[in-house]
């Protein structure tokens, strides 16, 4: 575990000049492992010989006692003594076998503990017969409270409603709970109290797979698989044809850079797309969303790593993408959400303001200050 983490974080280690410290820490852990391995080997190594000695002593005692009993005229013959020894051998054999695998059993148990932790996790329940759906995209949150850890509320009495075709923007400081709301819509987490309704149905009654099929997301942290570019875009809709994939890439403005890759659409992406720039990864994620035909679209900082010019260029594509869908946009760059039907300002898990851009600007509250700060480059 230590090696794996340090290798994936090697850039940070190099940048902060921590090579020596890491080497030292690794040395210590390695020494500990060496010591316990030697001990384990020594113990398991002596187990066999000790067992053999015990067995042989047992034979010796039985043979001597038997011989003595025969010689002193007890009711015992050589035949009976021999049979007894044979039985004894078959009795001891399985014990020897268990002992010889003892070492393996011990180390397997240590690993099994962790495996069982995973196995014992409660399975996510899929209720196939419940309201299996094609959602229209009407979303409503009523007095939603939520905490990742009990006692530390993240969302407090959140209310919002969105209908198909509408765009809701959520703004707010880092850590205010914007991504959390999106995690609740997809049921990655369940709410503590209150109610989430989709098409008037409680989210709890909606079949999860159907629900997630109705939502497409462009996330803050894009994830790409170690597959070809084409396959990665196709995650948006598995039955899409090559032409559709390319069309989606063009709309997302990703076509040009994809064609510059060594094998174009068939270039295999390395671990999480480390052979692409952050912005290029986001364009691929947007292409995925373009491909998907879901009713609800979630854009969580979808363009945060894309330069302003490219962002402007794909703005039209985004508008097209949002057409006829219920869209949730989270953005720190406020220029991207100006046209939203409703803007919600979230602070410490509470919605403190809501309204259109114009209304909120007129009001001169939190949002207006946020906007002014952004345009003037002043911190508030
Ligand atoms: P940002 O603008 O940085 O993306 P955000 O508004 O999206 O911020 P959230 O990701 O919703 O913020 O996080 C809200 C709060 O929830 C934070 O204080 C964070 O510490 C906490 N949090 C987020 N994810 C978890 C988790 N998996 N377990 C426990 N707490 C979490
Ligand atoms: Mg977030």
Describe the fold and architecture:
The chain is α/β, with parallel strands linked by helices and 380 residues long. Helix content is 50%, strand content 14%. It is built from 14 helices and ten strands. It has helices at 2-8, 10-15, 19-71, 78-100, 102-120, 178-185, 208-213, 229-234, 242-251, 255-259, 278-291, 308-322, 357-363, 366-376; strands at 139-146, 155-162, 167-171, 193-198, 201-202, 215-218, 296-300, 326-330, 342-347, 350-355. The longest helix is centred in the first third of the chain and has 53 residues, at 19-71. The mean pLDDT is 88. Residues 178-179, 220, 300 line the site of magnesium ion (MG). Magnesium ion binds at residues 178-179, 220, 300.
Radius of gyration: 33 Å
Gross geometry: elongated
User: How far is the N terminus from the C terminus?
Assistant: 42 Å
Distinct compounds present:
adenosine-5'-triphosphate, magnesium ion
**Unreliable stretches:** none
Order of helices and strands: HHHHHEEEHEEHEHHHHEHEEEHH
The overall pLDDT average reads: 88
Number of strands: 10
Strand order of the largest sheet: 6-7-8-3-9-10
Count the helices. How many?
14
Class inferred from helices and paired strands: alpha/beta
**DSSP strand (E) fraction?**
5-15%
Biggest sheet layout? 6 strands, mixed
Helix content: 40-55%
Quick structural gist:
Helices cover 50% and strands 14% of the residues. With 380 residues, the protein is an alpha/beta fold.
Which helices and strands occur, and which strands form pairs?
Elements: H1 2-8, H2 10-15, H3 19-71, H4 78-100, H5 102-120, E1 139-146, E2 155-162, E3 167-171, H6 178-185, E4 193-198, E5 201-202, H7 208-213, E6 215-218, H8 229-234, H9 242-251, H10 255-259, H11 278-291, E7 296-300, H12 308-322, E8 326-330, E9 342-347, E10 350-355, H13 357-363, H14 366-376
The chain binds adenosine-5'-triphosphate and magnesium ion.
The site of adenosine-5'-triphosphate has 12 residues, from helix 6.
């Amino acid at each position: 575990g230590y090696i794996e983490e340090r290798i994936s974080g090697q850039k940070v280690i190099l940048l902060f000049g921590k090579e020596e410290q890491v080497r030292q820490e690794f040395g210590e852990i390695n020494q500990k492992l060496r010591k316990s391995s030697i001990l384990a080997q020594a113990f398991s190594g002596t187990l066999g010989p000790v067992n053999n000695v015990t067995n042989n002593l047992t034979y010796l005692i039985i043979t001597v006692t038997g011989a003595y009993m025969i010689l002193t005229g007890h009711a015992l013959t050589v035949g009976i003594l021999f049979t007894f020894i044979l039985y004894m051998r078959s009795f001891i054999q399985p014990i020897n076998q268990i002992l010889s695998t003892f070492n393996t059993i011990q180390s397997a148990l240590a690993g099994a503990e962790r495996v069982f932790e995973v196995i014992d996790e409660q399975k996510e329940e899929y209720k196939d017969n419940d309201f299996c759906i094609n959602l229209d995209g009407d979303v409503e949150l009523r007095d939603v409270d939520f905490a990742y850890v009990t006692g530390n509320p993240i969302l407090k009495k959140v209310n919002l409603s969105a209908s198909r075709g509408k765009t809701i923007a959520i703004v707010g400081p880092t850590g205010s709970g914007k991504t959390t709301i999106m995690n609740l819509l997809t049921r990655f987490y369940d709410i503590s109290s209150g109610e989430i309704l989709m098409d008037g149905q409680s989210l709890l009654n909606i079949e999860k797979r159907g629900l997630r099929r109705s939502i497409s997301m462009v996330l803050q942290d894009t994830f790409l698989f170690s597959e070809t570019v084409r396959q990665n875009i196709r995650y948006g809709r598995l039955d899409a044809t090559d032409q559709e994939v390319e069309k989606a890439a063009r709309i997302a403005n990703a076509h040009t850079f994809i064609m510059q890759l060594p094998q174009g659409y068939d270039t295999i992406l390395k671990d999480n797309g480390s052979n692409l720039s952050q912005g290029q990864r986001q364009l691929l994620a947007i292409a995925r969303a373009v491909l998907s035909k879901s009713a609800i679209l979630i854009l969580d900082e979808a363009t945060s790593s894309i330069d302003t010019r490219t962002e402007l260029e794909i703005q039209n594509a985004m508008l097209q993408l949002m057409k006829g869908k219920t869209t949730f946009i989270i953005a720190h760059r406020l220029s991207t959400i100006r046209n939203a039907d409703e803007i919600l300002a979230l602070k410490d898990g509470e919605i403190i303001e809501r309204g259109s851009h114009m209304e909120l600007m007129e009001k001169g509250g939190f949002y207006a200050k946020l906007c002014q700060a952004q345009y003037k480059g002043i911190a508030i």
